[in-house]
From TrEMBL:
<keyword id="KW-0813">Transport</keyword>
<keyword id="KW-0547">Nucleotide-binding</keyword>
<keyword id="KW-0067">ATP-binding</keyword>
<dbReference type="InterPro" id="IPR017911">
    <property type="entry name" value="MacB-like_ATP-bd"/>
</dbReference>
<dbReference type="GO" id="GO:0005524">
    <property type="term" value="F:ATP binding"/>
</dbReference>
<comment type="similarity">
    <text>Belongs to the ABC transporter superfamily.</text>
</comment>
<dbReference type="GO" id="GO:0016887">
    <property type="term" value="F:ATP hydrolysis activity"/>
</dbReference>
<dbReference type="InterPro" id="IPR003439">
    <property type="entry name" value="ABC_transporter-like_ATP-bd"/>
</dbReference>
<feature type="domain" description="ABC transporter">
    <location>
        <begin position="4"/>
        <end position="224"/>
    </location>
</feature>
<dbReference type="InterPro" id="IPR027417">
    <property type="entry name" value="P-loop_NTPase"/>
</dbReference>
<dbReference type="GO" id="GO:0098796">
    <property type="term" value="C:membrane protein complex"/>
</dbReference>
<protein>
    <submittedName>
        <fullName>ABC transporter ATP-binding protein</fullName>
    </submittedName>
</protein>
<dbReference type="Pfam" id="PF00005">
    <property type="entry name" value="ABC_tran"/>
</dbReference>
<dbReference type="InterPro" id="IPR017871">
    <property type="entry name" value="ABC_transporter-like_CS"/>
</dbReference>
<dbReference type="InterPro" id="IPR003593">
    <property type="entry name" value="AAA+_ATPase"/>
</dbReference>
<dbReference type="GO" id="GO:0022857">
    <property type="term" value="F:transmembrane transporter activity"/>
</dbReference>
């Protein structure tokens, strides 16, 4: 089954002379468990695509199907729950709660849902991300890169079916970037999570199962590499 599918997905910003077609009739589908790298020049429409898939913004035209359910057909409440469970977003910007410690920040979404976190997986994630001796610290006591890793840990432990990551290694050095990619690959393998990863880094793109190249709002190449 294709876990995620779009049909003629189109996003137009502005109107008249300031009209920009950021996504132009994009139709594609992603199999469950696939790790997909999305590449393309700056301004080509990558983040726009992720925002639409993640429900941050609505398409001008076209459809999105998650597990064969068309998103716009769901009622607002149902949609919010469905999206939260199914789709996890990792941005370059992360909103940590300043008044609770790192451990609570990571576990909060799970606890709010009344789910019991898998502490073995928690320890694994925290270990790989080098956060084990930061768990009792508050977000304000962390560096930018550490805060970014806390946000990534939070998304991973929640284990949504689909992870949408917009340059999650954007501000990090090579060692930390590699660790994050290893973690994404681990969660992809261990839990069959489907991952869409925007990256400008060719080395990272080559770690994926498939590379989709977006230029001027269109998919210009789509290659399965493993
Ligand atoms: P980058 O690699 O620089 O992050 P991108 O591929 O993610 O680029 P998008 O952010 O998707 O690019 O932007 C696609 C196009 O849509 C760009 O021309 C951009 O200027 C435009 N755009 C994006 N968001 C808006 C917005 N809120 N209003 C108007 N235009 C926008
Ligand atoms: Mg972008």
């Amino acid at each position: 089954m294709d876990i995620l599918r779009t049909k003629n997905l189109t996003k137009v910003y502005g109107e008249g002379i300031s009209k920009i077609i950021a996504l132009d009739n994009v139709t594609f589908s992603i199999e469950k468990g696939q790790l997909v790298a999305i590449i393309g020049a700056s301004g080509s429409g990558k983040s726009t695509l992720l925002h639409l898939l993640g429900g941050v913004d609505k398409p001008t035209n076209g459809q999105i199907f998650i597990e064969d359910r068309e998103i716009s057909s769901l009622k607002e409440k149902e949609l919010a729950l469905f999206r939260r469970r199914k789709v996890g977003l990792i941005y370059q910007f992360y909103n940590l709660i300043p008044t609770i410690d790192v451990k609570k920040n990571i576990l909060l979404p799970m606890l709010l849902d009344g789910r019991t976190p898998d502490m073995e997986y928690f320890n694994e994630i925290v270990g790989v991300l080098g956060l084990e001796n930061r768990l009792t610290h508050y977000p304000g006591q962390l560096s930018g890169g550490q805060q970014q890793r806390v946000a990534i840990a939070r998304s991973l432990i929640y284990r949504p079916a689909i992870i949408l990551a917009d340059e999650p290694t954007g501000n990090l050095d090579r060692k930390n970037s590699n660790e994050i990619i290893e973690l994404l690959k681990l969660s992809n393998k261990k839990y069959k999570q489907t991952i869409l990863l925007i990256t400008h880094d060719e080395k990272i793109a080559l770690e994926a199962d498939r590379i989709v190249d977006i230029e001027d709002g269109k998919i210009i190449s789509d290659e399965v590499i493993r």
